[in-house]
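Q: Structure for this?
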Amino acid sequence: MANEAQTQIMNDLVIDRNEDFIAKSEQLKPELVRETVRPQNFVEVVADPAVIHGWRAQAIESQAEQSYGKGDEFILDFGTHQVGYVFMQIRPVGSPPDAPLSLKLTFGEMPVEMAEPFSEYDGWLSSSWLQEETIYVDVLPARIELPRRYSFRYIKFEVLDTSRKYRVAFDDIQCQTVTSADPSCVIPLHHKDSLLAQIDQVSIKTLQDCMQDVFEDGPKRDRRLWLGDLRLQALANYETFQNNDLVKRCLYLFAGVPDDRGRIMANVFIAPSLIPDDIYLFDYSLLFSTTLHDYYFATNDKETLVELWPSAYRQIELALERLDEHNIVKDDKSWWSFIDWHQELNKQAPSQAVLIHAIKRAIEMAKVLGSDKQAFLEERLQEIVTATITHLWDEEQGFFVSGAEKQVSWASQIWMALAEVLEPEENRQLMNRLLSEKPEIVLTTPYMYHYLVEALIIVGEKEKAVEQLKAYWGEMIHDGADTFWELYDPNNKDFSPYGSYLINSYCHAWSCTPTYLIRKYNL
Amino acid sequence: MANEAQTQIMNDLVIDRNEDFIAKSEQLKPELVRETVRPQNFVEVVADPAVIHGWRAQAIESQAEQSYGKGDEFILDFGTHQVGYVFMQIRPVGSPPDAPLSLKLTFGEMPVEMAEPFSEYDGWLSSSWLQEETIYVDVLPARIELPRRYSFRYIKFEVLDTSRKYRVAFDDIQCQTVTSADPSCVIPLHHKDSLLAQIDQVSIKTLQDCMQDVFEDGPKRDRRLWLGDLRLQALANYETFQNNDLVKRCLYLFAGVPDDRGRIMANVFIAPSLIPDDIYLFDYSLLFSTTLHDYYFATNDKETLVELWPSAYRQIELALERLDEHNIVKDDKSWWSFIDWHQELNKQAPSQAVLIHAIKRAIEMAKVLGSDKQAFLEERLQEIVTATITHLWDEEQGFFVSGAEKQVSWASQIWMALAEVLEPEENRQLMNRLLSEKPEIVLTTPYMYHYLVEALIIVGEKEKAVEQLKAYWGEMIHDGADTFWELYDPNNKDFSPYGSYLINSYCHAWSCTPTYLIRKYNL
């Protein structure tokens, strides 16, 4: 999550475990749905400058009765994105196997992972995320059950060595896929626009592959529950799989391990036991509250609302501490807010908007609860909105500005629009001005593109919303996406904030919202 | 076993399984003795042209509370040779581990295996024998139990990657050693000659590490039951561990899977089920009979002698088919005999001697059994010995010659001496002539050095036998052997018939006989 130059580490984090919440999250552990999938084709990777990353997978004829010796390799295509466990049978061909088999397996979501050696990777995220295994098989024939879970469409098999006396053959290679999403719950869309129909499908598949023991951000990387992704996955979930207990589980997981000031961390680890990461993000912490709001209004689960409201309210309370005497979020070196991956993006204005957006939804929850915080929140909201217009709105440019340099970014305008700081008509003009003037500090993640599209919808520009959605997610499909990606800049398709596209996740939760946008808003 | 240019493959081998024999071998499966061993030091490998392979392991101070990150490595020394399973605890140090740990482990019997990368190996035996593993650990802390068995003194740990946020520490690294030898059965030697005492110890440790589910040739490589090694291990076993059931098990394993002509193959695989290798060696097949002879006279197990005599006799019978009209072993392209690893060694004369040696012992068994084969064998023996002297003895040189080129080799003289073809006094002179004239075709394996020493003993040259034993095995100890090696040429310490000393076994059964020679012959 952190940018390259800054890796957030908090050495003195003290966690205040709520064992009731943790127990509740445990009880909500989902059953995983398992299915057996077999490879569809042999493929080879072909260099092609016309495609993303410059590599294309091309189906080739398989030879029947193929056996492999030292240095032989082949690539299998499983037809679409899979998340699961890989099994196979390996048998010796020739004389009895008088030395072990050494075999290397490489798993890739995209053809480039079959083409570019992982040994050349030099990004700043850990190389351990790149999925490869070297196994030694002492006894043949053997049934191999790889213990780790993989996220892939392609598997490359490389026989490192056998011996001069034998070769090997592979039988019954299969993937046992796992998900906590039940596809039979999804109501078919039947959209007359075939591209939107396709985007909806790919979006649903993306969510399905990310729904595991928790809502994972991405099944290849980081395989973890993050607040920002959770919020969006939950919205998509309500329109599709409706596994609402999974949302509830995740809310209790986060609320179960705040620090001793009540701060909810940006992501949690659940194995070997539940611990929060030492990353605290201003915007993500507020999204906890917003996610609870969305959950309640999707499910009417008042009991959960009652129980988790104090945790949600606490995040608002803590965020308010960051406001300066002008009621503007203090932009200094002591805070972290995500918003988007752009290296130069200033977080002040977008974060201010996330706060306003969160307070409004907190007020809705307070009303349902008859909470005594309602009046206080309404009063603060008023002050903050007024301050925002006073200090962050540049009337001349017609944009919100952020930070000491008064940066104009896409993210600021989008979040301010979602927070409905301006009146509706000015809000609509703001979004239109954004689209026509195209400030330099652009969006880099599908996460922010979601909010762009949603902002266009709520200001009443549905057609433009559909246009953006098709241009972005449609282009991803055109570029070969079986599931939507963690990162995508249609003008710089090699983009990775990590230093190498090999490590990007090509099935990412925060990219799965088109199904929500299409279905919820009847696009 | 086969030389580089010749790899024996028999495509149409038909096996005639004897299920009774196989069942008997199953019932004799040994219990493995397990012990927990911990590393003794951290070491580093230091280049040193004065030592074998040019690398020495030097103990270094360990830092307490050491943690490791990307690119860090360390080497542990377990103090002596170990065969077993490796366990450890790994825990994260720093922030919660937000990416998998990727860890590479390299196991070596000798310091050179810690120094020279296996990626540079280019010998003709399979690189899969070189012991290394790359593991990915998704959940930390973790208890790691590596499933494969390793043969090593040193383990190198290389942390390939963690993440910027955490490092790892290793706790409680241990090896659970396995053997089917019970050290408490060994009577202490108390030899006044301290070098002989040491040689005896190292020899016993070598045998102990090779005694597993079967008598293995070497626990690193090939981890398999071979006839030639079995014979020598059994002799050492009778003087030490006296696990005679293990010898019996191995005899039944071999006798259980002859081919459809009754030929017993040179080695067998026991997993996933018992199958013989497709290697048939003239000398090794005769050693089956000799091994049965040794077994009976060590144990008086007549029941086994009765059951396995037909298999033993059959090997003699089949070997006799190779004699030409002069009663000399036909040396052509249609046969394989091992004898020793020397590339230019002619096998005719040594194999002739192995045959004579085997027939003499078969006659001893026939006598015990009252077998009607006795007379026939005695008659054939006479003919063969006469023919051997007529056709293979060069009176002028005072040596036996082998093959069309009339090659004079160490191996020929040694086996002829063991076969007692000449009268005792001439036999003794033969061995002395060998030691003084030193023919060019020398010995390359401890296997043949065993027979050299034993030949000197049986011709009555005990002192010279001790001299040779000390010069050879003593020099191995001087060069750092914790267990005796598969291959050793004191004049060419880098020797490997496989193209690289990395792949040599440094704990090899056929090198373990000094304990037998010392104890049996009271050296």
